[in-house]
Design a protein that fits this description.
- This protein is 22% helix and 19% strand.
- By secondary structure, the chain is an alpha+beta fold.
- It has a 3-stranded mixed beta sheet with strand order 1-2-3.
- The protein is elongated, with a radius of gyration of 24 Å.
């Protein structure tokens, strides 16, 4: 069964921001913030897999990062 996401007006969200983000983090249920009855943003809990581990393997090294791009410079010239 799909649970309907809670909607909250932006004014109330602004006034109760800290309480609401704590509630989303604890309950793991997203909240949709509305303006004039139209959804504008969704506050969702951070997924457990979105930690440092998700960046593992995403960085590659290509040579010496201190060496000038065009090779060694002869400073004494």
């Amino acid at each position: 069964m799909t649970m309907k996401k809670q909607q909250i007006p932006a004014g109330i969200f602004k006034a109760q921001f800290l309480k609401l983000i704590d509630r989303v983090a604890e309950s793991r249920h997203p909240v949709i913030v509305t303006k004039r009855g139209r959804p504008v943003v969704e506050v969702v809990p951070v997924r457990k897999d979105r930690t440092r581990k998700s960046l593992r393997g995403s960085v590659t090294f290509h040579g010496d990062i201190v060496e000038p791009v065009l090779g060694s410079w002869d400073i004494e010239r």
